Amino acid sequence: MNTFGVLGAGHLASYTIAALRDGGYEGDIMLSPRGEASGKAIASKHNCKVLQSNQAVVEAANIVLLAVRPADWIDAVQSVQWNRQHILVSAVSGVTIKALQEAAGIENAIRIMPSSFIEFGNPFIPAFPHNDKVAQLFGPRCPIVSLSSEQQLDESMIMSCAYAWQFGLMQQMQDWFVERGWDAAIARDMVMRHWRGAVDVAIGCPQADFASLLNGIGTPGTYTRLGYDELTQKGGLSALDAALRQVNRQLQSDS
């Protein structure tokens, strides 16, 4: 049976472990002593064990998640002894598979890019390259989405950034209605329900692209089309494109 350990015990580790447990994994999860307070909180919430050292984690697990800050990754990897049975699973942005392999002295290294929302449902994890043992570990309820290149894995981080921008848009919508006398809780609830409704429609119409769904609802002469045309003309969509490009440029610069 595959065993799972984690180097790093912060927020990233917490939501990845939550997705792993929600996916049905019931085996032991070993945590490093790094971040003692947060590690104990994760251990209590998700039934994990905090071990005495990083080396103890690596000795107890054959699949090891690297979930430390980018500045700390090489020290964390080089502070322990790896063997060829280990699979190093890195969630550290900007660190290539080649760099991981060289630092650990092993071949079995993969990268993942989990998003924070997987702790609350809709768990899935982008990864490159595909690894059967890692996919089996997370299970069908938390599928590993195997991408075709390391570049795509890096670019998936842009989606992880962009999903959080939606909170800003949702806040702006809520504030607009509150300014018109709505109760804040009702406005918040309705904004969320409409946002979720768009996702539900897309899931319910898997053969339709997003533009077709928009055009089917926002037909000429409707208020939906009126508002969408105004959003487009005022640069709402081009601003999103610019934001995506900016994050991508910074990502490439930091790599």
Characterization of the model:
This protein is α/β, with parallel strands linked by helices and 255 residues long. It has two domains: 4-147, Rossmann fold, CATH 3.40.50.720; 154-254, ProC C-terminal domain-like fold, CATH 1.10.3730.10. The protein has helices at residues 11-22, 36-46, 54-60, 73-78, 97-104, 132-138, 150-178, 184-204, 210-217, 223-233, 236-254, and strands at residues 4-7, 29-31, 49-50, 63-66, 87-90, 109-112, 125-128, 144-146. Strands 3-2-1-4-5-6-7-8 form an eight-stranded mixed sheet, with helices on both faces. Strand 2 (29-31), helix 2 (36-46) and strand 3 (49-50) form a beta-alpha-beta unit. The two termini are 35 Å apart. The model has no long low-confidence stretch (mean pLDDT 93).
Descriptive tags:
255 residues, ProC C-terminal domain-like fold, Rossmann fold, 11% strand, 2 domains, 55% helix
| Mean residue pLDDT | 93
Helices, by number, come to 11
CATH architecture of the largest domain: 3-Layer(aba) Sandwich
Rg (C-alpha, Å): 21 Å
Number of strands: 8
Class of the largest domain, according to the CATH hierarchy? Alpha Beta
Give the % helix.
Answer: 40-55%
SS-based structural class? alpha/beta
Described by strand count, sense and barrel closure, the largest sheet is:
8 strands, mixed
Distance between the termini: 35 Å
Our estimate of the beta-strand percent is 5-15%
The strand line-up of the biggest sheet is: 3-2-1-4-5-6-7-8
The CATH superfamily of the largest domain appears as NAD(P)-binding Rossmann-like Domain
State the shape: elongated
